[in-house]
Amino acid sequence: MATSVAERKLTMARAISEAIDQAMTEDPSVLVMGEDVGPYGGIFGATGGLYEKWGSERVLDTPISESAFIGAAIGASAEGLRPIVELMFVDFFGVAMDQIYNHLAKNYYMSGGTVKHPVVLMTAVGGGYSDAAQHSQVLTGLFAHIPGLKVVMPSNAFDAKGLMLEAIADDNPVLFAFHKGLMGLGWMPSDDQAAVGVPESSYRIPFGQAAVARPGRDATIVTIGAMVHRAVRAAEAVRDRIDAEVIDLRTLVPIDRAAIVDSVRRTHRLLVVDEDYRSFGMSGEVAAIAAEEALDYLEAPIRRLAVPDVPIPYSRVLEQAVIPSADAIEAVLTAWARGA
Amino acid sequence: MTADEARAMYRMMRLIRRYEDQMAEIYVEGKTPLFSIAAGTVPGEMHLAAGQEPVAVGVCRHLRPEDAVTSTHRPHHVAIAKGVDLKRMTAEIFGRQDGLCGGKGGHMHLFDPAVHFSCSGIVGAGFPPAVGSAMAFRRAGDDRVAVAFAGEGAANQGTFHESLNLAALWHLPVVFVIEDNHYAVSVPKAGSTAIAKNSDRAAAYGVPGLYVAGNDVLAVDEVAREAIARARAGSGPTLIEIETSRLYGHFQGDAEGYLQAGEKDAWRQQDPIPRFRQMLMERNWLTAAEDAEIEAAVAKEVADAVDYARQSETPDPSTALTGVFAAPEVSQAS
Q1: ipTM for the whole complex
Q2: Domain B48-250+260-267: CATH architecture, name and number where available
Q3: Is A64 on the interface with B (CB under 8 A)?
């Protein structure tokens, strides 16, 4: 850390907007554009206060034209700007995916490294508040699948600030996904654990470095985003029976293979927890890494908890049935503690 | 318009035509007697722009190297007119290591940042980046402009409408150029587009919309000059649609069964290059000797580019695994 952690607790929303503000102060080429990022301050507060400070030349409300304004970030970045583009919900990216996966992600490679796109795509992910199938997805696996995009998802305010400053400084396109339930919004169920001490100074957290959210010896839980806190709570609940380590990946691309492999080699058990869909995503990828590099160390089959390949349902009880819960994590740990 | 300027435009049109005819010849190398898209000196799809020279030349002659251009899956004419390095462009089309993109892009994905040129194989995809370049130019406070080229089929894409609205809303220095070559692959304009002229769609966004009929380079020149000057002056975007013709098919190997009888013959009879030559000669702006000199000069320029491409090595296969991400910035530890 650049400075010691003063006990100035910030919500994740405040930490993100503070990071953007500092980047805008340091670099006049940084600007923010998207839907409702101006006077409203972002639907989830990630751009709060920026419009008042920087004005409409650097904080631009856009029409609801996602292909146009995400695609505009391609041309703007090629010509020297560093746009941060917010698209409210990750669920809304469908209409703009051509600009993202055929252009933004690929132009550096296709151009033989001559065209760079330092663009941050910022978006809200996740459910838990009955917003149903088109407003509750995580979908980070979809972006992580595409070569050329980095994918970041902080679990707390400290990481959110450092990862955002790193994302803005990176010369590549970065998808910065924040979980709505971690932002500290008064009108949304929010996890208190995400609001932590955040230094006032500018600091960066390198991509590809997982954090140990809870050290442990008997099992490894690899997870990211809001699920980190559920995993820690579950691990604490069963601490007398099994000592589980919780690894917060913080970035999916690049992924910290060494952190996964080292932990599994020590604990001999792996549970992957992901709020994204189960198949063909992060949980499978992490399991594959363990199978490739730590198979001989495993004493139990790898377990996965993720959304079981169904759309996110509306009704509260239905939604709770599909998003991984602390109870479900605890159940896996308990079974292991019993010697399963 | 001076005689020198007109001759320069004519020369550029001849260069493009020579290039496309040469590509058509080279494209079949290694593909006979059985055609395989994957075989030969130049594999993959090949979309040639012979016949569409007036669009590229009439517009790009008003652009500077630092102005940005986005083009399409059919990009050679615009690339050449914008000043893309012909040798390295040809090496890229050949998939060689000295290509603009080291062989990673190919004919539909040419990038030359030295002249701010890029293109995309996705229909309608060039509008949003052009708007973004224009944003950057305005923010830089200079008079650079961006031009997005696209076919008439692309005007039915959401990107066209979203981008034109955004450009108009923000009053950006960008010009949209629709190349109306009558067909979107095989579908005629009347079968895809609810109105006769896409330029009329400009009214929906409160910007000037101009249609240039006749595939006439001087008419294009006039309209483009005004639109680009308007953008440079900070007066906002313009939509231009230019009637043109596609003298080869959609792609090389296209049997063109969808054309009406005699349609292509009519286009050939209206070939913009002989027409322009005749006009220049009538005005005494071009002599037969000068014409022959131009023919020899462009032939040599194309031959040199092809030689350069043939002599360039194929890329080291290991380079396929590099260059996905730009090198990370030096990051301070947290």
Answers
A1: 0.95
A2: 3-Layer(aba) Sandwich (3.40)
A3: no
